[in-house]
Design brief:
By secondary structure, the protein is of the alpha/beta class. It is built from eight helices and six strands, in the order ααββααβαβαββαα.
């Protein structure tokens, strides 16, 4: 069945207008009002951040949540922070993006065969959403999974995304995953003959500054994605 644009528009509207989590609503709006000095001239987005990319994508990338002065500022996932710098540089090198930077919603960035979203759609304090906040956001992740009808590879950025994706996929009828697969950089899990879950360290500053995740390590993940897409 052909994917209706209105399905995505409806989902994005539901995400952007969501106010299910009072703690997150208060935090994202407070950050947007107070801003930070280096972005004092910005008109912060200050709302939940919807997914972004190609609705016919075979690759779905899922992270943790928008950054307080990244996605919460720009209104686009992984846009305007150093994690996004690493991710989009790798996507560009692998041929999934038309440019290596993601700065603002109107910067001309386009994704090809790739869609990006997050487990939680609002910036959480300390990058640590509560369990009930994760559960409140889960229906959006499930809806994206069903709308991505060409999906072949899911890439989980970080342990948080990996474990929550396993739980989310069980809600869709896949699994159960018992015992739970252990997270590790480069871990692959065959979900069905046509769908693979891959894990990667998150391109957070904590990981990239310490060398836990290097540029070549992230590039290798996308080389593997390309290899799988070519052979399927």
């Amino acid at each position: 069945m052909a994917l209706e644009q209105t399905d995505w528009e409806t989902l994005h509207h539901q995400v952007i207008t969501c106010r299910r989590c009072p703690r997150l609503v208060n935090w994202r709006e407070t950050v947007a009002q107070r801003k930070t000095r280096r972005f004092a001239q910005w008109d912060y987005w200050g709302k939940p951040v919807p997914g972004f990319g190609d609705p016919t994508a075979r690759l779905w990338i899922v992270g943790l949540a928008p950054a307080a002065h990244g996605g919460n500022r720009t209104g686009r996932i992984f846009t305007g922070d150093r994690s996004g710098d690493w991710l989009f540089r790798a996507l560009y090198k692998a041929g999934f993006a038309n440019q290596p930077q993601s700065i603002a919603r109107n910067d001309g960035l386009r994704l090809n065969d790739c869609y990006i979203s997050a487990v939680v759609r609002c910036a959480p304090p300390g990058n640590k959403p509560l369990k009930e906040e994760v559960l409140n956001c889960r229906p959006y992740l499930i809806k994206e999974f069903h709308l991505l009808t060409h999906l072949e590879i899911i890439l989980a950025l970080g342990q948080f995304a990996f474990l929550n994706l396993l739980q989310t996929l069980e809600f869709t009828g896949l699994g159960p995953f018992k015992p739970r697969p252990r997270f590790g950089h480069g871990v692959e899990l065959s979900l069905t003959p046509h769908l693979t879950l891959i894990a990667s360290y998150h391109p957070s500053q904590q990981n990239t500054f310490t060398g836990k995740l290097t540029e070549s390590m992230l590039d290798t993940i996308f080389l593997r994605v390309r290899q799988l897409l070519t052979t399927k």
